[in-house]
Write a structure and sequence with these properties.
The protein is an alpha/beta fold and 418 residues long. It contains 14 helices and 24 strands. The strands form six sheets. The protein has a four-stranded mixed sheet with strand order 22-23-1-24. Strands 2-15-17-16 form a four-stranded mixed sheet. β4 and β5 form a beta hairpin. The N and C termini lie close together (7 Å). Bound molecules: uridine-diphosphate-N-acetylglucosamine. The site of uridine-diphosphate-N-acetylglucosamine has 21 residues, from α1, α5 and α6.
């Protein structure tokens, strides 16, 4: 596997890139396939390592998973194991999303507890409390979550402390097969949850409130396998839009619903970019200086935490100072330490970053801190003087398909190296 990405800055970028299906949706749609005996087909699935890990999780349960280009064929006719082992959950925290569908279908699940993560503590208390409300007995011990529901699940009124994406999805996938009605209040409203609701509804689930903070689920006895197309990846799209914003573009990104990027586009406009929505994408260009803009990450429709590092890269070159506030995760500023090595002027205080714009960045060796932070370092490298070598880029490959190829197609001087 490639260990680093080498970028030589200063090349103009222009042209068009197409984004794939959303990583954060595809992983959940794969888990949803567990709910129905038979073969489900998911289209527009990105070829990234997180999807390969989820395929391994499903195979470990005895489920057949075959990939043909961007289509996955998931045969959940039989589920022969109810365990997601630590080896896989440690590789990808999102593996815990099989907890809800497994316990709903089999009445039991054994899933390793995800360990600490480099972007804050990322607890799972809301997943667990919500499942308990639905009648699941939870036993935590020896590093595993043992979930059992010998009597089956029953509907409940669940109020989440915070609109957690993962907890909303786990509870939805448990509630669809529960006896009676479940109300999930303060549910997350990310477009990927809307996508999951769409797939579940076409499988025969009864869910009201799609896109709102209150989801009402009326349980059914069984679900049927379906074919479903994954929604476009708004974060992948946003990443290439920031590449256009940094370099001036024009860059067109296709394969995404512009409405899913509303807050990001608003901030890019405030930063001095011209943004145009298309039916299936967005065009960006910038002819003036980058203006400083404050952003605060929030659950959707607020500014996505998964775009925070990319935006910080842009603000590092703004004509003035901006404040970036991270409200979703603790400790998600590791990127700042690395981009500082390229000459950025950033001060972190608690969950706020004060970014004083500088005239230029200089290429430097940097370490990829996480998926989005790593992508943002490559973006910074596009406009830095000289060469930037980003090491440990395996994180980037977890979530971006053909990242260097897509940037090269826009004109960037960027390559993967061992
Ligand atoms: C998902 C996305 C991730 C994105 C995040 C927020 C996937 C695979 N990942 O992560 O890319 O950054 O949404 O948009 O879809 N929390 C608790 N207790 C819980 C659950 C969460 O305290 O039981 C906290 C977390 O520690 C975090 C915050 O809630 O601070 C948000 O987490 P959550 O929305 O659950 O994110 P994920 O589903 O893990």
């Amino acid at each position: 596997m490639a260990a680093s990405i080498i970028v030589t800055g200063g090349r103009p970028l222009s042209g068009e890139v197409r984004v794939g299906g959303a990583k954060n949706s595809a992983l959940k749609l794969m888990a949803a396939a567990l709910l129905a005996p038979g073969v489900s087909v998911v289209n527009n699935v990105p070829a990234i390592t997180d999807v390969a890990t989820m395929a391994d999780v499903l195979r470990g349960l005895g489920v057949g998973v075959e990939r043909d280009d961007h289509t996955l064929r998931i045969d959940a006719t039989q589920i022969t194991s109810h365990e997601a082992p630590y080896e896989l959950v440690a590789r990808m925290r999102a593996s815990i999303i099989v907890l809800g569908p497994l316990v709903a279908r089999l009445g039991r699940a054994r899933v390793a507890m995800p360990g600490g993560c480099n972007i804050g503590s990322r607890k799972i208390d809301m997943h667990i409390r919500g499942l308990q409300d639905l009648g699941v007995a939870i036993d935590l011990g020896h590093g595993y979550i043992e979930a059992t529901a010998p009597e089956g699940l029953h509907g409940a009124h669940v109020i989440l402390d915070f609109p957690s994406v993962g907890a909303t999805e786990n509870l939805l996938m448990a509630a669809v097969l529960a006896e009676g009605t479940t109300t999930i209040e303060n549910a997350a409203r990310e477009p990927e949850i809307g996508d999951l609701v769409d797939m579940l509804v076409s499988m025969g689930a009864r869910i009201e409130g799609r896109g709102s903070a209150t989801l009402v689920v009326t349980g059914v006895h069984e679900l049927a396998p379906v074919r479903h197309r994954t929604v476009g990846d708004r974060i992948e799209a946003g990443t290439y839009l920031v590449a256009g914003a940094l370099t001036g573009g024009p860059v067109t990104v296709r394969g995404v619903t512009p409405g899913h990027l509303e807050m990001v586009l608003t901030k890019l406009e405030q930063a001095g970019c011209d943004v145009g929505g298309l039916a299936d994408g967005v065009t960006i260009r910038r002819d003036r200086a980058i203006r400083p803009v404050d952003v605060a990450t929030l659950p959707y429709p607020g500014f996505p935490t998964d775009m925070q590092a990319q935006f910080m890269a842009l603000m590092s070159l703004a004509d003035g100072s901006s404040v970036i506030t991270e409200n979703v995760f603790e400790n998600r500023f590791m990127f700042a330490d690395e981009i500082r090595r390229m000459g950025a002027d950033i001060t972190i205080e608690g969950h706020r970053a004060l970014v004083r714009g500088t005239d230029r960045l200089s290429g430097a060796p940097v370490i990829c801190p996480d998926l989005r932070g790593g992508a943002a370092l490559v973006l910074a490298g596009l406009v830095a003087e000289g060469e930037t070598v980003v090491t440990e880029v395996e994180h980037i490959l977890r979530g971006y398909e053909s990242f260097t190829e897509k940037l090269r197609s826009l004109g960037a001087d960027v390559r993967l190296a061992d």
